[in-house]
Amino acid sequence: MAVKIYTGIGDRGTTSLFGGRRVGKNSARIKAYGQIDELNSQIGIILSEIPPPKISNKLLRVQDELFVLGADLSAPVEIKVRIPRVKKNYITRLEKEIDAWEKDLPKLRNFILPGGNKVGARLHLARAITRRAERSIVALEQREKINKNVLIYTNRLSDWFFVAARYVNYLEKISETIWKGR
Q: In what residue span(s) does the Cobalamin adenosyltransferase-like domain sit (predicted)?
């Protein structure tokens, strides 16, 4: 018999973390990994738009890493459970990809408006969702100990999405719109 997706256990507004501790669904921890889940769904939308091959495999890898990040957030560090954790090499890989893309891009001298083609615009949206998730992770870190790589990875990932958006628009020969201010 198949396992049902619903149990009814969370119907009173609580959920379980790895290790069994129950917390409110509005807790800082649940909010943080809920926003990571939203980000992962946004990447699914980006992939449905068929991004250039130079980026699609990287997006799939980031989706996988976000599952690890979500598991990391759902397992308090003091609980000794066997789950994958965000590691330093995730961060290093993002930095190398950013550096490689930036070699091809025109030097950024001004703020640019989010946009471009659909993939580029959605990558900009992913950057904004990542920043929101990062703020939630900071709020969580101020209350509880978390894996330090989670916050660093999330910060770097928002930069990665920004440069990825620029790179996709560059590959598609779409000019960036400079913000002119007032």
A: 5-168
Domain count, the chain: 1
In total, the chain counts a number of residues equal to 182
- Distance between CA 139 and CA 120 in Å, rounded? 29
Q: What is the pLDDT of residue 147?
A: 96
Distance CA 156, CA 150 (A): 10
Residue 15, judged by CB atoms within 10 A of its CB (0-12, 13-18, 19+), counts as: middle
Q: Check pLDDT > 80 for residue 60.
A: yes
Look at residue 35 and give its three-state secondary structure.
helix
Taking Cα atoms as reference points, which of 62, 76, 64 lies closest to residue 32?
A: 76
**Do 159 and 89 contact (CB within 8 A), yes or no?**
no
- DSSP element (H, E) containing 82: none
Spell out the alpha helix ranges (H) of 49-179.
53-74, 88-104, 118-141, 148-171
CATH code, 159: 1.20.1200.10
